[in-house]
Batch of 2 targets.
Target 1
Amino acid sequence: MARMKFLCDAERCIACNGCTTACKNEHEVPWGVNRRRVVTVNDGVQGAEKSISVACMHCSDAPCIAVCPVDCMYHTEQGVVLHDKDLCIGCGYCFYACPFGAPQFPQQGAFGLRGKMDKCTFCAGGPEPDGSQAEFEKYGRNRLAEGKLPLCAEMCSTKALLAGDGDVIANIFRERVTVRGKGSEVWGWVTAYGKPGQGQPATQGGTK
């Protein structure tokens, strides 16, 4: 059984926020909640700036599951970390336990009012029947049940954000690291097209 994971290649991320926009649009995410966000370090420092797309990483040993007092956080058979909003009491323990800041309080309602937690679902819906209206209203679209991957990864223009079976995306990233160079070669263009004047054919490693 595949274990679903995210992996973001910081060498390819251009901080376009296409992943964030795709997620909010696909699932009609509530105002004030970003299930996915882009973080930039060394912002404005030439040659040192890096960006990475961050969401729930669907940990194999998830701290949010460990601290939830009502057991509303759970693993699916595919390793996706989901939560049951009918059980959630909005205590915020998962928010404090998560190193990625994935679970969030909704911002609607009176100031300081806490509601049900919201988080990235890996486009896998929730405990309601797959594809039901109740599932969409609480968790968004269930793309995994449709045989599709999360839209944030599919919409990534530079293929920086990878999603799928952890072993598969780890192999893709490993191949990228072994073939890419520095500067303009960091995307593997030399591997794909060869050096100027050589006319080498494209290889699989440079097209990923």
Target 2
Amino acid sequence: MLASLTRHYHKLKENNAFRILLHPRVLANYHRYQKEQRERPLVMRSHPTGVEIELTNRCNLACVQCLRSQGLKPYRLGQMEFETYQRILEQFPWVINLSLNGFGEALMYPRFFDVVEYTRRKRPWCKIGIYSNGMLLHTERAERLISCGLTELNVSIDAALPETYCKVRRGGQLPVVHQNVRNLIRVRQRSRSRFPLIGLNFVLLNENEGELVTFVEQAADLGVDFINCITYAGYDWGFQNRRTVDSYRRELDAAAQRMEQLGIRCRSFPSDDLSWADPDRPFSCPFFWGENFRVTFSGEVTLGCCTPFKEMYTYGNLLEQPFEQIWNNAAYQRNRALAKQHIVPNPVCASCDRFSKRFFQLHGSLSAETPTAPGSPDGTH
């Protein structure tokens, strides 16, 4: 009990979210949601506490790891009207963690700062964050980012060398991103503000093998608040992993040692658990209960993982039905029932399941002799 209270206290302190204590119904939903996440009922009485709302799916880069770059789907580009955002946010009165992302660059949304300021007024307790490629963090935006009410900014880099960055995040320039991050931190220091917290993301790809330690050193030099190291597993977009388990092990061990030496905080780091890549692992996915939850720019409700976001599987549209009706509709209940029986509920989920299970089969071994490897699938933008 004491450990749980301490953990919650530090979360509130880090995000300056003590105002949530003034909203008992938000806290009640949070505790009910945590309980239902463990029990996994077919009918949820709680709302998801974390929601991702896609303001736009337009982007200024053409990253090699992005779904669009694989040419797997006819992509309908668009952005959410500000009034539509207001309607959608109204349907999530208990949200605690809000991400303004999807498959696009959030800073390309024309009224981005209006959205953040509006959300801060309507949900003062809420953690509001974005993922960005960092190319648009010029001086004018830096000033607004400090003052608009944003809690967290994650800059996705995925490389340490400029030539690798150009291969992975096509259309971008690593020196520009580094300079933008430095400038943002300088503006934040000048304003004497704690927010937004600034982090850098590194997704382990074929192209950036051997660059994680240098990335850690660069992050420490920039003075960011944290970093994230994430695997590519679970993204069934035509990606073919060429790295072995040993390759991951060597790089992760070296990076962990360097992070300890430099005193840099890593909030997401692959674990030793390889069960997600075990070919005999029974299907199990928490996303049907809202662990990751997304609303597209057009109002479609999807799971928060990346594979069903091919716009092949939607549970309903928030502009046509209220969330209360969608959240426990026949499709959700059917898929929850099947997932509880370890049955893959649809072809889209089946492709994700197969992809994870064969991630290391061609180039690595899942034997007990290799104790350290990437952890559970995660997402970045």
